[in-house]
């Protein structure tokens, strides 16, 4: 189960893994307010998938999606930067950031357009797809995977659905 926390309050979220079949109600929209921070029940494991659906803001600067171990290690920090059309990825283990990864085959995000990001946890890596097309692989630097129990989303976007 996902528990969302917005900057203003702590609200229980919808079941993680159970897709919402309709547009979010007012309460659901509050739970998906940006910046968003929510727990991943049971942590990550091979075979688990996180889907983030949203819309890029009209005049976007950047947005971040991070998978973390509570308030500690960062297993995946993905920073989408519009001006340079880059998607930077990194991890922080024991307060030490690793080597940043930058190369991407294409830049998939467009101002005012909807998107779907899927983060698949596989045995050696996270595989990230955008709108059904593979974008990047990010090999695990944080173990155990079950310790990755939090997702944080911030920046120039609106979240419409999260499972």
Automatic annotation (TrEMBL):
Biased composition (Polar residues): 1-13
Region (Disordered): 1-24
Keywords of this entry: Lectin
Gene3D superfamilies (alphabetical): 2.60.120.200
Short name of one Pfam family: Gal-bind_lectin
Any one GO MF annotation of this record: carbohydrate binding
Family annotation (SUPFAM superfamilies): Concanavalin A-like lectins/glucanases
InterPro entries registered for this protein in UniProt: ConA-like_dom_sf, Galectin-like, Galectin_CRD
Domain Galectin: 36-163
Keyword Zinc (UniProt): no
Function: Does not bind lactose, and may not bind carbohydrates.
Name of protein: Galectin
Organism of derivation: Sinocyclocheilus grahami (Dianchi golden-line fish)
Lineage: Eukaryota, Metazoa, Chordata, Craniata, Vertebrata
Gene label: lgalsla
């Amino acid at each position: 189960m996902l528990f969302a926390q917005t900057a203003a309050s702590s609200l229980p979220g919808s079941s993680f893994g159970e897709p919402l079949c309709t547009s979010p109600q007012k309460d659901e929209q509050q739970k998906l307010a940006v910046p968003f921070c929510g727990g991943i029940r049971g942590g990550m494991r091979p075979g688990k998938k996180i889907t983030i659906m949203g819309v890029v803001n009209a005049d976007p600067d950047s947005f971040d999606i991070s998978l973390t171990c509570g308030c500690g290690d960062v297993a995946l920090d993905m920073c989408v930067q519009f001006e340079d059309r880059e998607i930077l990825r990194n991890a922080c283990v024991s307060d030490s950031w690793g080597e940043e990864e930058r190369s991407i085959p294409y830049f998939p995000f467009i101002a005012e357009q909807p998107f779907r990001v899927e983060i698949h946890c596989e045995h050696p890596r996270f595989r990230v797809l955008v709108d059904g097309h593979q974008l990047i692989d990010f090999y695990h630097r944080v173990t155990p995977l079950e310790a990755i129990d939090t997702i944080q989303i911030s920046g120039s976007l609106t979240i419409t659905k999260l499972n």
